[in-house]
Recover the amino acids of this structure.
């Protein structure tokens, strides 16, 4: 019997932005629409936070809403929260609130608040879903707002549409095959491959990642940020591929993700445009998250889940800082110095702190997660795993390079004040508190993610999928036993 | 409240005082508060004095009670212990014959430089920024010096690296210091990557990151390594690379003169005195590893010898006093490394302390060197003899001069064989991607970026700093 939350938090979290998206259409004044969207996003965040705390008190792996309407109507659970998605929901809601809060009044007339709230509802619904078909449907619907924006801006959406269309087609085909094969006992190899390919395209895996740079170049920074930063591709991997794929297959995919992480880190270092730079930086980090998830070991998975949250918070702040700078100065080139430090020291500080947090600097939220990830990668691939360290080093150089170029190197002269607005300042303080709070007191977060990793691995081995008994035996051997033995040896044998 | 309590209490005070300073100055910056210069200087002074007094008290108690090894357990920062899986980040500080002198040295030199800087940077725009980074540096030094586990040492090590790079770029409105800061950060990050890998390997070899378990139970320097085998050599080599990066040894020496772009107080305390010795401190801390791997010992000796000779040659042709001092420091660091390689650990420690103190004094006096010279000339009533700068035959002297003048072509080689191919390859990928998306969009194919050779200098950070 599945546990039940005390309130319909999940439905509320989805419903609030959905109703808000409809209501904001009727508000003509851009500034009022902005304030209304902030209020709706705040309510949605409160709803997801309520869900998280409520779920934490239940001490269970999964739970569904109280007064579940879908259950009453269709006799099935549509919205379910589990240990994987519980913190991702507030993170997603925070992302939207932060972006809306830092949207300057001058940009409000060009920013689609209705589309933003609609996207938020879709994202929260996706993260609250576990059924493969619902996830695929919601992932497909989430493509519409960016596509509409590209059309509205008279930008060619072909690259975006091609990749997203391919991803969706592969997901649908893969799920069709997997669903059919589930009935029989043969392994869903082709279906699994198609699902994996579809999800990885959504993640931006090398060499099918160019749609991300294209989107960042053609759409508004806010829209691109909101589409990419929630890492719905990684979520799709966890929901669609992780439960059915054998460990050897996932670990092989981890190599592709590792290559993407290294390649993107190198690309981030040579970029001259800030948007493309951010894009590759994000791609590198999200690929590192995937590496952790695909290692299928407790330590690697814990690292992946920790880095997922830390990268989500850090690169959200980093992207917002970059967006705020862009809102003041227009698009910036990284081959010249801009020297904005004197005018916007607050943004400079946020840029540096969030950048350092994303690379796992000690004392920030990303530190322990990155350590776990490196350890997990080296445990599975002793030599190739070193690429994680190399990618992290390249990313750290890219982050500081961007900081120096945007904020240092020359004396910028401005005739108007470029200082932070109060709403930006509040966002910065919230994110900084999360970064240092999670960095200085990491135990609760890491323990929670470790427990989630253990449970996900346990459920993976007990889920009735098309895995053959031999595969399951191989999986359990690969995931739990040897790792434990290795860690035991770490603990107990001082001499080797 | 017995002796162990006081050891524990004082040990925590030593670490807590710079940590509190970082927290106070950091919060002030974050909340946008403004402190008077005198308030910041007083806070800094208090933190240094409290930390110094506490460390002196620990030393006094160690001498009185004849204790040579005082571990201060803080506990597990992170602990995951479930069904056999054991991951932990253990925070532990150790007071012994190595860490106590180095910590006291850090407090003394940072205190001197803090007092100097409060006058030197009076009314400077970056006064607050300097003292915030100074506090981060001090915390990093104290944590690194007292670290009882390799993870704790890594924590402090990173703080030192970040504060150093940002202080080199202190004069942030000029491109030169900023480029040099980036250069230093790059070298630090890659040597830090070696450190991280070494830490992970040590974890797997010994089952823990505690130096007590890695280096045996004996107090420093009498510990015996509990790990053995060929992997010790690889761990040691990684640590040697990390130490070389931090101490500016060959082939990473190119960052040393660049570091002098920062304000004089930071140059003095970081690159002349403390930061440059952190690499050798690391080698001293893991010195028992050298005893079980003769090959590693030879590598340490070779690294020290090459760096010492290189520093001695290059320092002779420097025309700037801070650069000359930087390379002179490198010579001494090379000699200290050789002493470590030769097993003369106490000599190396004494050498380190003496050298750091002397260099701080010399670097703090560096801005006044012209005034000093004029005073001397006024006193003797004539000109001081100028050094003979004429290059004469034989030919090898000219070559040697060229070698020294170009600082051994180290930076040029790094740029030519590592940076340039890297940039070229990724620029090529970038242009391919642009062509692909342009073709897919049906837009005219974008012109690829000019190759780095055609690119004007400011377009390429890593090349532009050469």
């Amino acid at each position: 019997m599945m546990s039940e939350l005390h309130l319909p938090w999940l439905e509320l979290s989805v419903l609030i932005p959905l109703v808000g998206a409809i209501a904001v259409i009727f508000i003509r004044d851009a500034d009022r629409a902005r304030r209304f969207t902030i209020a709706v996003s705040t309510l949605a965040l409160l709803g997801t936070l309520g869900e998280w705390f409520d779920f934490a008190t239940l001490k269970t792996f999964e739970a569904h809403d109280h007064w579940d309407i879908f259950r009453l109507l269709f006799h099935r659970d549509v919205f379910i929260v589990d240990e994987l998605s519980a913190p991702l929901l507030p993170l997603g809601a925070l992302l939207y609130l932060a972006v809306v809060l830092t949207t300057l009044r001058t940009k409000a007339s060009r920013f689609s608040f209705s589309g933003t709230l609609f996207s938020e509802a879709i994202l929260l619904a996706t993260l609250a879903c576990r059924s493969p078909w619902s996830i695929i449907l919601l992932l497909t619907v989430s493509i519409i707002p960016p596509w509409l924006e590209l059309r509205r801006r008279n930008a060619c959406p072909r690259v975006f549409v091609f990749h997203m269309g391919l991803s969706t087609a592969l997901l649908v085909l893969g799920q069709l095959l997997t669903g059919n094969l589930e009935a029989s006992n043969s392994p869903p190899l082709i279906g699994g491959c198609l699902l994996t390919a579809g999800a990885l395209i959504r993640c931006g895996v090398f060499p099918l990642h160019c749609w991300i740079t294209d989107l960042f170049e053609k759409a508004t920074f806010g829209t691109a940020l909101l589409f990419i930063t929630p890492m719905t591709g990684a979520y799709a991997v966890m929901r669609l591929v992780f439960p059915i794929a054998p460990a050897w297959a996932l670990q092989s995919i981890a190599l592709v993700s590792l290559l993407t992480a290294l390649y993107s880190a190198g690309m981030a270092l040579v970029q001259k445009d800030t948007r493309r730079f951010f894009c590759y930086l994000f791609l590198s980090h999200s690929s590192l998250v995937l590496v952790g998830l695909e290692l299928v070991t407790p330590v690697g998975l814990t690292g992946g889940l920790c880095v997922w949250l830390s990268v989500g918070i850090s690169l959200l702040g980093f992207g917002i800082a970059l967006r705020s700078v862009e809102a003041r100065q227009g698009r910036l080139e990284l081959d010249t110095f801009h020297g904005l430090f004197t005018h916007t020291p607050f943004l400079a500080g946020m840029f540096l702190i969030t950048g350092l947090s994303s690379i796992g600097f000690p004392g920030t939220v990303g530190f322990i997660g990155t350590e776990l990830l490196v350890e997990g990668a080296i445990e599975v691939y002793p030599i190739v795993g070193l690429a994680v360290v190399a990618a992290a080093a390249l990313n750290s150089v890219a982050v500081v390079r961007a900081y120096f170029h945007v904020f240092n190197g020359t004396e910028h002269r401005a005739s108007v004040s470029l200082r932070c607005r109060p709403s930006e300042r509040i966002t910065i303080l919230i994110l900084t508190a999360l970064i240092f709070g999670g960095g200085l007191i990491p135990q609760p977060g890491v323990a929670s993610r470790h427990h989630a990793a253990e449970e996900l691995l346990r459920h993976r081995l007990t889920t009735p999928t098309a895995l053959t008994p031999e595969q399951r035996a191989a999986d359990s051997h690969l995931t739990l036993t040897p790792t434990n033995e290795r860690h035991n040896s770490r603990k107990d044998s001082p001499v080797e | 409240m017995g002796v162990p309590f006081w050891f524990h209490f004082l040990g925590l005070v030593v670490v807590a005082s710079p940590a509190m300073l970082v927290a106070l100055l950091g919060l002030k910056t974050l909340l946008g508060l403004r402190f008077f210069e005198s308030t910041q200087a007083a806070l800094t002074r208090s933190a240094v004095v409290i930390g110094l007094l506490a460390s002196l008290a620990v030393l006094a108690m160690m001498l009185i009670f004849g204790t040579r090894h005082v571990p201060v357990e803080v506990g597990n920062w992170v602990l995951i212990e479930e069904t056999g899986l054991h991951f932990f980040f253990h925070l532990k500080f150790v007071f012994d014959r190595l860490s106590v002198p180095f910590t006291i040295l850090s407090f003394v030199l940072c205190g001197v430089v803090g007092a100097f800087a409060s006058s030197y940077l009076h009314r400077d725009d970056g006064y607050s920024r300097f003292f915030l980074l100074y506090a981060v540096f001090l915390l990093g030094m104290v944590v690194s010096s007292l670290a009882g586990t390799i993870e704790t040492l890594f924590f402090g090590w990173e703080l030192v690296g970040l504060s150093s790079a940002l202080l080199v770029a202190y004069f942030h409105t000029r491109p030169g210091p900023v480029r040099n800061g980036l250069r230093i950060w790059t070298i630090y990050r890659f040597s830090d990557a070696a450190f991280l890998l070494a830490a992970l390997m040590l974890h797997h070899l010994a089952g823990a990151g505690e130096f007590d378990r890695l280096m045996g139970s004996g107090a420093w320097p009498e510990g015996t390594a509990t790990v053995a085998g060929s992997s010790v050599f690889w761990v040691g080599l990684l640590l040697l690379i990390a130490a070389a990066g931090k101490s500016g040894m060959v082939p990473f020496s190119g960052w040393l003169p660049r570091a002098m772009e920062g304000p004089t107080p930071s140059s003095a305390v970081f690159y002349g005195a403390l930061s440059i010795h952190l690499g050798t401190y690391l080698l001293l801390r893991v010195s028992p590893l050298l005893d079980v791997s003769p090959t590693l010992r030879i590598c340490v000796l070779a690294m020290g010898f090459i760096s010492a000779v290189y520093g001695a040659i290059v320092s002779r042709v420097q025309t700037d006093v801070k650069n000359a001092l930087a390379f002179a420091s490198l010579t001494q660091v090379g000699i200290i490394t050789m002493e470590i390689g030769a097993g003369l650990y106490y000599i190396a420690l004494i050498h380190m302390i003496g050298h750091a103190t002397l260099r701080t004094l010399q670097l703090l006096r560096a801005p006044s060197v012209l005034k000093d010279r004029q005073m001397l000339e006024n006193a003797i009533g004539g000109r001081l003899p100028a050094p003979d700068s004429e290059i004469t035959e034989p030919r090898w002297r000219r070559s040697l001069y060229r070698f020294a003048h170009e600082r051994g072509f180290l930076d040029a080689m790094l740029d030519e064989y590592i940076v340039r191919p890297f940039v070229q390859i990724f620029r090529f990928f970038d242009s391919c991607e642009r062509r692909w998306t342009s073709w897919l969009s049906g837009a005219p194919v974008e012109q690829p970026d000019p190759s780095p050779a055609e690119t004007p200098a400011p377009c390429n950070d890593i090349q532009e700093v050469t």
In short: Confidence is low (pLDDT under 50) at residues 477-496 of chain A. Chain A touches chain B through 74 residues (CB under 8 Å).
